[in-house]
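Exercise: predict the structure of this protein bound to DQA.
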Amino acid sequence: TRVLVLNGPNLGRLGRRQPEIYGSTTHDELVEMCRSWGHELGLDVEVRQTNHEGVMLDWLNAAADEQTPVVLNAAAWTHYSWAIYDACAQLAAPLVEVHISAPSTRPEEWRHTSVVTPHAARVIEGHGLEGYRMALETIAGR
Ligand code: DQA
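Solution:
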């Protein structure tokens, strides 16, 4: 099974961006980790990151057309993008929402809502990068 792992804004700086919150592993390393976790689970995993909302919408629309399962960390868009909400609403295959930190318990009120959650089969937050493995396991049906 092909699976898309889609990462939103600022996640390209993983490892350098607020490491006290997001850890010291880079996005390139996350790509390798997801690919090897996928391999163990019999999944063909493709990891992408963009800072451009329209690019993310195009990827989600293609995933809807192709009925591809999606692991989505929409980063800050999670909290306010109705376009991401609409794009997630039309997905046909399972969608798993992932956050490295636990936005629902962070001090900023605006992090406490998610436009992705209503459409997600599962929400994983606060498990660091391990959350991506948990999301892939969910999609693999484990
Ligand atoms: C995040 C949490 C969001 O609130 C934040 O805007 C991010 C990353 C996470 O993975 O913990 O950019 O999605």
